[in-house]
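Render DUF3149 domain-containing protein in 3D.
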Amino acid sequence: MNVFFRDFFTDPVLFLSFGFLAIVVSLCIFFAFFFLKKINDAEIPDQN
């Protein structure tokens, strides 16, 4: 298991790949919750 962590932190391609993947996934999760919150908090106009 120590070999995996050593290779992970010494290989910049592997480290940056997982880093950017984590950033993209976290942004997707943030915007999903952001838009769902905005949809739930939106006021519905009267249909007169």
